[in-house]
Amino acid sequence: MQFIDLQTQRARIEADVDARIRAVLAHGRYIMGPEVAELEEQLAASVGVGHCVAVSSGTDALLVALMALDIGAGDEVITTPFTFVATAEVIALLGAVPKFVDIDPVTYNIDPSLIEAAIGPRTRAIMPVALYGQCADMDAINAIAARHGLPVIEDAAQSFGATFRGRRSGGLSTIGCTSFFPSKPLGCYGDGGACFTDDDRLATLMRQAMNHGQDKRYSHPRLGINGRLDTLQAAVLLAKLAIFDDEVERRAGVGARYTALLQAAGARSLAEARDGLLTPHIADGNTSVFAQYTVQSDDRAAAIARLDAAGIPSAVHYPIPLNRQGAYAHHCCPDCTPLADRAAARVLSLPMHPYLSADDAERVVAALTGAD
């Protein structure tokens, strides 16, 4: 069994992908080719915003967003410690300080009720992360940001395609950022990412920042990076985007099946319990794209051993909160995010993709619960 099955998807779109790649090879515009502009237009329409800026990775999307907001040395950006390292990494790379706020134990996303107390005179932005496929409480976060005159950068690397109260992830704040890493719900065949905004000025600044700070050929009024999306990756994404809505529906079905099977086997929802085998909880008003299907276990090592014995892969997203990582520990007291610490010690991600069969889901649950 594969943790993520990209080959079944590849077989489904092979003809379209190959045709699009051949078209790129024929016109030879490997950088900033027409497929990039076509992809940006389709993505902006999908998210419901005025602008999409395609970039070279999800990490660069976050970096470009921060650069467009002129965040730099000594500034603070409030974020979560329970996420992939890129979220804090880009803040630190600009000389700014990631200020970590603990999580909501039910959704794993940043707890809005803790954000306001963390805002100080050097705070310049709030960067919530949509973990495991569902959005944070963006209305609450945006309201706090508005009271303090702060921009919000939505790290939607795991939630592209999800909705929050009827609105698409990526279009819920000042700037939304996503990743097209191959394992993401919408992934290319390498690195890729995108930034989304309704702000014309920020769109211009992000487009400059991702292209060496250039406003026209050989004119560089701003500091920038080489953050352009390759045309070949845009071609792949256009083929995948054609089936994306169907795959999002399939993901929801797989997630619902897992939850039903696990709860029939005695697991409870995170919304109901804090101990035992716990299934994820999708907050009211949210949909999830299940970038991961992540459970909690009192004995994760034993659960992994049972899955391994049955030939079933698993993963831990994420075993060490960022405020306990060597590069970032000095930014935060080590014990100020106890809920992130608890989640990191208990979470376990199961095989998850749109093509996971009912039989495979049953096999996973049987091995996880020791019923096989």
Textual characterization of the structure:
- The chain has 372 residues and is α/β, with parallel strands linked by helices.
- The chain folds into two domains: 6-102 and 109-241, Aspartate Aminotransferase, domain 2, CATH 3.40.640; 244-369, Aspartate Aminotransferase, domain 1 (Alpha-Beta Complex).
- 38% of the residues lie in helices and 13% in strands.
- The strands form five sheets. Strands 1-9-8-5 form a four-stranded mixed beta sheet.
- Helix 2 (34-47) packs across helix 8, helix 3 packs across helix 4 and helix 10 (300-309) crosses helix 12 (358-369).
Oligomer: single chain
Strand tally: 13
Helix content: 25-40%
Sheet bearing the most strands, described? 4 strands, mixed
CATH arch. level architecture of the largest domain:
3-Layer(aba) Sandwich
Number of domains: 2
